[in-house]
Structures are given as C-alpha cells and as structure tokens.
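#structure-requests
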Amino acid sequence: MINAVGLHKAYRLKGRRIAALQGVDLHVRQGEVYGVVGRSGAGKSTLLRCVNLLERPDRGEVRVDGQDLTALGSARLRAARHGIGMVHQHFALLSSRTVAGNVAFPLEIAGVSRVERRRRVAELLDLVGLADRARAYPAQLSGGQKQRVGIARALAPRPKVLLSDEATSALDPATTAGILDLLRTLNRELGLTILLITHEMEVVKRVCDSAAIMEDGSFTESGRVSDLLRTPGSLLTRSLFPLPSDPPPGTVALTYPDGTDEPLMSQITRGFDVDVNIIAGALEEVAGHSVGRLNVRITGERRAEALAYLADNGLLVEEVR
C-alpha cells in the first residue's frame, strides 16, 4: 500500500547541511499497522511528511496505493491526498468550530452536500465514541476527546491510508491506550492501512504488525514484529524485553514469540540432564499475540544441546553476557 524507495531529504540550517533522510526504504502492506519508532531528530516526522508529499524528497520515489506521488503535478497530488488521512500530535482543531464542524470541514472543502455531510459526520462521531459531543467546542474537550475528533476528521474523506504523527505523545497512559485501541479497531473494521510515528516502544507493542527503528535518518532494523521477535540481536526485541543487568554466568534470555503450552524447561532438564534456574519471567501482549520471556540460568555438560533443542522448538535463545 505504501512503498517508498531510496528517500533522501536534507535541510540547510545556519549554512550547514542537515541530512534528515538517508536512503530510507519503507514498505507497508495493505491493511497493516506499521510503526516507525525513534528518538527526536531521528527523521521520523520528515519521513511521514514525505509519504504524503507535504515535504518533497530530494531523491527517491513514493507510491501509495500503486500511484507514484512523486511524479504528480500539484492538482493530481491534491486529489491523491484525499486517499491519505493525517492525525496530528497537537490535534490541529479549529477552535471556532464545534466537534461536528471540525469533522465536516474536509467534506465542505471537497464540495460534499450538506445532507451527506451531516450523515457522514454523525457516522464518524459514533465510530469514535463522541456522538454526544457533536455540539461541543475543542476547549470543552479532554486531550483524548480532541484526538478522537482529529481521527474522525482524518477519516471523513474515506481514506485508505491513515498517517499518525506522534498522535499519543501528548496524552496520559490511560488515554493513550484508548486511542491505540481505537486505531486498531479502525484498522480491523475498515481495512485501514496505518503508518504511525512514535518514540514510545509501548505503542509498537500494543498495536503494530510491523515496525522499524530509525536513527540518524535511516532504518537500523525493520520487518514484521513477529519476525523480529525471532531474530537474534534484534533491537526491537531488546527494547521490548530488556536483558537483565549483571546476570550470573550461564544466563540465557528465552523469548517465546507465539507462546507455548509445551513444558520445555522440564523436557530439557530430563532429556539433557541440565539444571535450570529461572531468574525472571513475564508474559505480555505484543500486537495482539502472547509473547513469553524467561531469563534462566542453564548449567550442565549438555547445555549446548539443550539450548539447540529450545531454538529448534521456536524459541529465540540469546546468551546474556
């Protein structure tokens, strides 16, 4: 659905050239939630703005729904953007308009009739849980409600793609969870493809099917979250499940990407005559899947065979140095 190849973008600041994007390749499948995570200044927001051509890359190509946006003139690009919704960090609502008026705004610009606007606005406010706040003004809303209005407004033209630029960074944890759950619901019920920018790994853990870690204008790692959880040395896995500090000798970190009902620790104890000491463990939800994590100390002459057995049974096995 979104395919960006070889994106480069640089700015001039006080006579210096600042490289914001350095050869970024981004591939977002239709119907998935894709997260780009990184620190401030990593290039995330520039990447997002290049996807809908609010920023034109210096080099590279951007295709959305099969259309090469970088090859379009102004008029055709404006038309193509109707298929791309945008949710902003600080809501960007019109303070002089009601909730309903804010959601209706893009429809007015598009020339949609008043009757159809009212019908569509009512449908969207019900979808985001704000049917009873249609006549309220932004100043009367909480942060979470404002973001729900922003989401409803972005969905008004029926886009196939939704871009989210740090949409939850200004919200408290409980409200963030509600907004992320809403985005996941919209993704599933509407078949909406979502590309979200965030600096919070918790966002990736909660809703993303695929993710990329961005540093200094390029991706250091990208792929489906389920695949990265099986990849030794994955930065994403290390961020989601930090390794223990100062572990005893012989400690290994075991990740169960899909969970398991198999008594693997008992099996290696009996089958390979090793001792297993469980140091810590956790079971968490990652993108709707149960992922287990164990930090264990395994000792014995057949330790290497036991670790190979665990890896053969689908666990990610990492030595903790």
